[in-house]
Design brief:
39% helix, Rossmann fold, single chain, alpha/beta
């Protein structure tokens, strides 16, 4: 079996990480994987799995990208994939138009994955077309059914993103050398109740809700300290400045640490006391929260979206009404003295082998 994955690029990001994991798991099962994107720093990781990468500028939101349709059609003729798997909207448009240029007998089966809650319009609707549509959570499936009624429920398959339980497990602990460097780099965290908020610095991640939460905890005598882990992408500097100003206005400038992007997020999650999800809009899944739960670390989050689904399974008491910072602070004050343990071990369908097996089963069902 040969599967061709289309996505915009291979820079850091959740979609890119899922494609990397798919390539690794699928190639281990004897599936040939080809990834087509504009490239990026994760190409080496893709190729290390045994998959091949072909560089094509298929992800830019420009009419000029349509010039790639003919080139992709020729590539499909050469590669003859059994499955064309679409992971993003612009590549999906290029992919669908390219497939239409092939004789019907030579067309691959088309699968798309809804990785996120895109704006509902004709442009986004391309992700709901194809032979099968993968939703990464139950709420994602409901979103598709409500907004793209032409997509039959039988054609939507829920396959959650996964966690590698061989890498993320409750007994895991960072090395002594790692902890030494962590304490050296961030001495302000010593003796503090550390609240980790992972994710890129964007408005919807909810970092503006941290100052009132940290402030309420400190008012109770709890030495709370926010640890914001994530990069500030170009063009988002104003959002970070806004968050910094809110901490300053609350008199909490010394109670927040910005680490920037970290490649050792697993270790950071272990070093912090609690991981938060404060997304103001529901996330389709929430991969980092699942990793923290798999590590046996407590997670508190707003109760909507994929994170709410995870907490319902692993730590129901971690669910907080969306946007209620007072309720979040109250829960964290309780956890300061008595931290809960998530339900473990991680059950199906959240393990890596479950995700890979579900994809292979779906692909096989389409081509046999």
């Amino acid at each position: 079996m040969k599967v061709m994955h289309l996505l915009p690029s291979l820079s850091s990001g959740g979609v890119e990480q899922v494609v990397l994991e798919l390539c690794q798991g699928l190639t281990e099962q004897g599936v040939e994987c080809v990834v087509v994107s504009a490239g990026g720093p994760m190409v080496a990781g893709i190729e290390a799995t045994g998959a091949r990468h072909i560089t094509r500028p298929i992800g830019k939101k420009s009419l000029l990208t349509l010039l790639q349709v003919g080139k992709l059609a020729r590539l499909l003729k050469e590669e003859k994939p059994d499955i064309l798997h679409l992971h993003s909207r612009v590549p999906a448009w290029v992919g669908h138009l390219a497939v239409k240029r092939l004789p019907k007998a030579a067309r691959p089966k088309v699968v798309s994955t809804f990785h996120g809650f895109h704006s509902v319009n004709f442009y986004s609707g391309i992700m709901a077309r194809g032979n099968k549509v993968i939703a990464v959570s139950r709420c994602m499936k409901q979103h598709i059914l409500e907004n793209y009624p032409r997509t039959a429920e039988a054609d939507i398959v829920v396959i959650p993103n996964s966690v590698d339980v061989a890498q993320n497990y409750p007994e895991y602990t960072p090395t002594a050398e790692w902890f030494t460097k962590w304490r050296t780099d961030y001495p302000e965290l010593e003796g503090k109740f550390t609240i980790c908020l992972p994710g890129r610095i964007t408005r919807i991640k909810g970092a503006t809700h941290l100052p009132p939460i940290i402030g309420a905890l400190k008012a109770c005598g709890i030495p709370a300290h926010a640890v914001i882990v994530g990069e500030t992408k170009k063009g988002k500097e104003a959002i970070r400045q806004e968050i910094e100003q809110e901490f300053e206005q609350a008199g909490l400038s010394n109670d927040v640490t910005w680490t920037g992007h970290r490649r050792d997020l697993r270790d950071v999650l272990c070093a912090c006391d609690v991981t938060l999800s404060l997304t103001l809009q529901p996330e389709s899944f929430g991969k980092t929260t699942l990793e923290a739960l798999a590590l046996g670390r407590p997670v508190a989050g707003y109760e909507h979206g994929g994170v709410g689904e995870q907490l319902e399974v692993f730590l129901p008491e971690g669910k907080v009404p969306t946007g209620d910072t007072a309720a979040m602070a109250q829960l964290l004050s309780k956890w300061y003295t008595q931290r809960p343990t998530p339900v473990l071990p991680i059950p199906a369908p959240y393990r890596r082998e479950d995700m890979i097996g579900a994809h292979i089963a779906l692909y096989n069902a389409l081509i046999h």
